Amino acid sequence: MISYLSKFFYVLSQNRKSIFLLISVFVFSSLLEVFGISLIAPFLWLASKPEVLHQNWWANKIYSDLGFSSAHNFVIFCGIALIIIFCLKSFSYFLAQSYINHFSFANQGKLISRLLTAYLSVPYTFYLSRDTSSIITNIFYETQNFCFKSMIPLLQFTSNAIAILVLLILLAKTDLLLLIILSVILLPIFFLFYYLKGQSRKWGQDESEAYHDMMRTVNDGLGGIKETYVIGCQPYFIDEMNIYVNKYTTSKTSFVNFQTLPRIILETLLILFTVIIVLVHQIFLSQSIESLLGVLSIFAAASIRLMPALSQSLSAIGTIQTGSYALDMLYSDLRNTSQSIDNLEMKFQHLNILSNSNYLLSNHRLSAEFLLKQIDIQNLSYKYPNSAISAISNIYLTINKGESVAFVGKSGSGKTTLVDIILEAKVIIYHGRIDIQKKGLDVLLDAWQKICHRRPDQTLRLLLVGTGTDAPALQQKIARENLRDIVWINKYIRDRNAIQRYLSAADVYTLPSRHEGFPVAPLEAMACSVPVVATNVQGIPEILESGEMSGGLIVPIDDVEALATALESILDNEMWAKELGRRARERVERYFSLKTIGQQMRSFLLNEDLPN
């Protein structure tokens, strides 16, 4: 229950204070109601025997203070006062229920706006694992479920629970034994609802999933109506809709039937309680029914409010359990989009900082020199996280610079997924000899596993370019550990243009080696404006002499977590990655270009001073 309430208040966000105002209204209404009910028995007693007026201290004092001349007039006055109290009670109850409805519907509208703002503010990568129909369903259907199956039932349950508590206190003071008997009779219904709580959530989940599937089917069938007619798949969409309609009907019917149980059972048990009490007094205790009239009148008056309150409370509990799935969906999306928006705001802040310098402009100029001549995709397959079916499989595609390409296919065939991967996938690249021990490739794969585990919804690729004697062992490790999203060009690449294309497609280059002399591969990556993450092996401190200022990060040897964290820090901050790439390109041009190396060799051979 604590977990449910924490999610509930998170979704409500800034409207929590209003709930405490509602609770105050509920308490006042309940106290006024109990006060009126508690006066019913004394009024009936006084109306039947006006002569006993002067035997009660309070009644006699009121009679004297108000200057009544006859008991008959005082009884009329008490009746009018009782009517006014119940009218005030009814009016306050109506105001409380009206405020509940206004509060709930107003917050539903605010929640719709909040969700839409969140969905429009997240990075595009958020949509790589989501379809539009599920988002539309959340905005309209799940917010409606939250309103009618979480917010209104929870508020009504709170209102009724306060009324029930106060009424039970009144009944306990009237006749504790009768209250205990009534509680024992009502106990089975509470066990029934507790037993079915899991089933209630299942009905809510089935209903939401079926509605989402119906929305998706309509969106796919009518959204791509031309493709539907061309391919001739109208029967497919009709059959799909029938399946989801049957699922929706079953779950919705079960829920509504479940909602009618409390009233039916409570009415039956109330009659059972009354008959049992009368029989016990007349048969077993041999007492006159007249001795029970005062007590039964209070119980009857209390039941006018108590029975509906119990019925509504039990129904509310079932409804809340059914609506918990909708609450979980909204809570999850609001939390996830909030984190994505926070990350996006950090990027915007970084962009504002860069816009005040020359870095951004020069980075664009550098990038322009290395635009790809073509996009070359070979044997590309992809499945979304937690999905057993591949979204795309075995794709081979070459797009030359300047060409316009159209992807044609039915809805769900993977067109958007392919474009998303081309435009949005984050790529880590390693190229070099496949030597697991010396090159630290086991460390790289362990780090990759951590990165993928911490980013299940992000489109990621580890691109391995190269081969060697350890290629079979590396392939076995990848298969044994079921590592995902690894693209391996298992051959020697001697074409420098091909190497440049692979490097230019990456977001970050990594060298996880345990041993090196003076590695050239990081310099090739830096020449393509790709930031570098390398271990602290021989040669790297000279290449990345100033660390970040030189265009890369240096991590300890054999430290999986440090390698994963460094790579993630670059993947998560696109503007910083571009800045590191600019610095890397600048350092290569200044210290490792052919011109610079030539001048250094000339100066060494001729014993000349090295240029600055």
From TrEMBL:
Transmembrane segments: 20-46, 66-88, 151-170, 176-196, 264-285
Coiled-coil stretches: none
Keyword Signal in annotation: no
Keywords for the protein's UniProt record, in alphabetical order: Glycosyltransferase, Membrane, Transferase, Transmembrane, Transmembrane helix
Domain of life assignment: Bacteria
GO molecular function, one term: ATP hydrolysis activity
Pfam family membership, one: ABC_membrane
Location of the ABC transmembrane type-1 domain: 55-322
Gene Ontology cellular-component terms listed: plasma membrane
Subcellular location: Cell membrane
InterPro entries: ABC1_TM_dom, ABC1_TM_sf, P-loop_NTPase
CDD domains: GT4_PimA-like
Membrane topology: Multi-pass membrane protein
Family: Belongs to the glycosyltransferase group 1 family. Glycosyltransferase 4 subfamily.
Protein name, UniProt field: Glycogen synthase
